[in-house]
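Minutes, structural biology subgroup

Action item carried over from last meeting: produce the C-alpha cell record for Intimin/invasin (Proteus mirabilis). EB confirmed the sequence was re-checked against the source entry. Recorded below for completeness.
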Amino acid sequence: MKTALLSPLEERQNYAPKYNIHDPVKIQVPKQYLTSPKQLTLEVTTFDSNNQPYVDPKKYKINIDYFPANNAYKIISLDYNSKFIYTDTGTLASSCQNGWSTTTTHLILTPRLVFKGEPKKLLYPIYITTELYDVTLNPSDKLIGHINEKLTYPDKIIFSEHSKKIAEISPTSAHYALDEECRINDSGHGTLKANITIGNRSSYLKKEFHWDGQIGGYF
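Output recorded by EB:
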C-alpha cells in the first residue's frame, strides 16, 4: 500500500487568533493521487501539547473519481463560426456563389469549444470530437448547392493542463463543407455535436442551427 505524509505537524496555536480551534486545517492532496479513480484513506492523528498522540488516529475513506461527463456543459461551452471559401484557391469569400459569379464556393461551419475554468488546473485530459448531422437544404426553384447531411471533423480537441482555454477546428477542404458548391439562396438547418470523453466516461453537447448562403450559420 502506497502512503505519503500529506501534512507535517500543524500547530493550532499558529492559527490567528491564538489557539483558534474554529478554522479547519487544510490538507493539500498531491496531484498524483487524484488523476485516476481510486479510494484513498486519509489518516489523521491529533497530538497534545506534549507532542503525544491525543487519541487514536482517525481514518477517512475518500473516493476519487473522474468528473462526470454528463456535467460537461458546466465546464465546456460549444459554439461555431462560419467560413465561405473559394474552392479553387482556399481563400476566404464573403458569401456563397451568387447568380453572376463563376467561382465555386463552399460553406464550412468551424466548431469552437471553450473551457470555462483554468486548463492548468486540470488533473486529466478531456478529449472531444465534433460532427454535423441532420443537415438539410430547403427546396428552391433556383440553382442549389450540394450538402453533406452528416460529417465528422478531422481533428480532435484535447483540453489539458498545457492547453489554451479556446479551441477551434477550422478545416478548409470542401470535404468538410456543410454546403459544397453553395449558392447564395441556399438555406437549411442542422445540428452540431461535440462528443466528450473524460476518463472512461462519455457524453456530448449539441447545438441546433439554421444556415443560409449569405451569413452562414445562425441560431
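Discussion: The chain has two domains: 12-64, 69-218.
Next step: EB to file the record with the rest of the batch.
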